[in-house]
Amino acid sequence: MRLPDIWTGLGFALLGIFVILQAQGFPEPAGAASPRLFPRIIGCGFVLFGLMIAGRSLAARMQGAEVRLLPPVEDWMRSSKRLTRIVFVPLSIVLYGLLAPVLGSLPVSVVLVFVSALLWDERPVAAAIVAVCVCLVVTLFFMEVMRVPLPTGPFPGSLF
């Protein structure tokens, strides 16, 4: 599936605006290039090129070229299982961001990996074993090797 250029361009422009606004909260030390600089440059590039893509598409439409505003419905889009798999990826990212600080990183990631495995037709017992093992290894790697403090939620100790 390919989105029409007007929507892709506007999406990139909005993403660029979001990045620029988020960079506003970064610290700005005096007399040096600040952590704001690089995200602002990238965000401005996203806005500029996104608007160029959307504008080109809009100009072509105004000149009479057949420019679609809606993507065509393809065969794979008629499968609810495939659409569920696609929607689950960004949904799981949002759910992790919302639930991990409250419930803990490890329990949330185990549930999300388990549900993902089930969506891909894995057997429940195998999905549970893989979810627990993979999430435990990844959590330990991030916490012990990379020294990244993951959210523990209501559970005491550093494992969760």
Automatic annotation (TrEMBL):
<dbReference type="Pfam" id="PF07331">
    <property type="entry name" value="TctB"/>
</dbReference>
<feature type="transmembrane region" description="Helical">
    <location>
        <begin position="41"/>
        <end position="59"/>
    </location>
</feature>
<keyword id="KW-0472">Membrane</keyword>
<keyword id="KW-1133">Transmembrane helix</keyword>
<dbReference type="InterPro" id="IPR009936">
    <property type="entry name" value="DUF1468"/>
</dbReference>
<protein>
    <submittedName>
        <fullName>Tripartite tricarboxylate transporter TctB family protein</fullName>
    </submittedName>
</protein>
<feature type="domain" description="DUF1468">
    <location>
        <begin position="7"/>
        <end position="151"/>
    </location>
</feature>
<keyword id="KW-0812">Transmembrane</keyword>
<feature type="transmembrane region" description="Helical">
    <location>
        <begin position="86"/>
        <end position="119"/>
    </location>
</feature>
<feature type="transmembrane region" description="Helical">
    <location>
        <begin position="125"/>
        <end position="143"/>
    </location>
</feature>
